Please model this.
Amino acid sequence: MKWRHWAILIVLLLLNYIIFSTALTQLAAQRRPEPLSTRTPHPTFENVAPTPVAWIVLPTSTTRPTRAPVTPLPTVANPVTAEITADIQPTPAAVIAAAETQPIVTLAPEATATPVPPTATPTGEAVVHTIKRGQTLSQIALAYGVTVDAIVAANNLADPNRIITGQTLIIPAPGRIPPTATPGPPPTARPKPKPPTPAPTQKPPASTPTPAASRFQFTAQTVWDPLVAANCAGPAIAKQSIIRDANGNAVNGARVEVNCYDNIWLSHPSGNPGEYDPGHYDFSFGQNVPQDWTCTARVVDVNGQPVASSEVVTIHFDTNDCKPSGAGHQVAILNWTKNW
Model:
């Protein structure tokens, strides 16, 4: 019966093997760390306050520290602005202060323009007026409460009907030059000596505007040339702009200051080697879309030396009828003359 004993022993060994192997497997499973469940990270968002679009100035202009940008105000149709005359052109701060004291007079029909004269020049001093597009001498005279003859006499105008946009006129104070009506009769006595020498009597008025312009060391002339750029481009001063002296020679090293709604920038010096031809300069506002802006410009220094005085010229970048053949203007040619 020995084979039965061996069979029982073999069965017991098999049972022990199965029990120990199962126990070892469970122990190893307990010691092994369970894998962590993978989580997909969700993106986080941060609320950022919107920032206004800043004015961009291309490398052709040097930014000058100024106040924060001001939103352009809507333009008023045919405003009549007055600039205070002085031997030296007032600074932008003085111009702003003078503008606050001088009310803006809107041209109206002749019947409603009568109350304007008493408030046009309360100080009783002469005023310099820059002619706007569409204005006539009669409208300007009504706005300031003076006669057309007084303006003609104060500016030595050869032809009262020939005035151009951007031209400056000296407006005498009301009542300061009432005799301008009396010089009217002398022309009746003047024709007697006129027939012998008609040419000399006619030419002096043509040369007389130069003394008025010589009040400033620099005077300006704005030219709108549709061949330079279409009116739907961004506002800029074209590189065709040039600064000359009284003899027509190019002036190098002059810088032009541009002020748009109290944002002030300076152009590169005129005639910069490698960038511009002698006397030429340009200015870009970094805008590639039309803008309805009104800016001012003046010459501030030449070769680092401040100028004695400069005419302050107003530039209206107009988006009217925006198309290549439209009536608006975006790119100006702003020429300057150095008088002394």
Notes: DSSP finds eight helices and 16 strands in the chain. Confidence is low (pLDDT under 50) at residues 76-88, 105-123, 177-193, 203-213.
